[in-house]
Amino acid sequence: MKKEILEQIKKLGGNIDNVKGNSLLEDLQSITFDTVLYQRPEDAPWASAEEQEPIYGIGDFINENEALFKENKEALYEKIIQKYFRQTTEGFGQMFWEVSPFTPFKQGTSDFDEWNSDFTDESTDLTEIIKVTNDPIPDFILLVTSYSFPDNFYITLSDPNPENPTLFGTDHEVFFREVTNEGNLEDFMNSFMTKEEVLEIVKKRIEG
User: In terms of Cα–Cα distance, which of 52, 48, 81, 49 is closest to 65?
Assistant: First the structure.
């Protein structure tokens, strides 16, 4: 992987100490996170990026801790980090680094036994993937999951640019029947906010 991607992963709280550069799958599996990931708000029809909460529900949490803010702002900021930047399944709009191989085309694997019949009939649509990889039977790597649509993000081991592979999104309700091109890994990782960036947004809004 590009060093810029690894540097961003480290900024986001990922441990890259065991990355050896031997293979994309091995490198990704060696990266661990002790926190979840939050994407930067983007302009939407209902609200601009600046009007949206950087993390779902953080406004209410700040209001609940108004007394602490008046007493000790830094203590509030530390409390925000402790609440939101940890491995929690409570719904804050977070995403999860969950790297695992997915091999529906590889005979002899449990994924093949469970999924190959689905992937060889007309219900799946890998058009977006084939456009990029020219590979109709790729081995996948599940990279990130989320609570929103799409809720699964994959790359393929046959990506022509393993230094900065393309991500593909699909959802459990339309699993590989609908697939979207989510852009390259570098841009995807850059869409997430560091702890410092979240606090910068919070401070700007509550300190004026």
Answer: 81
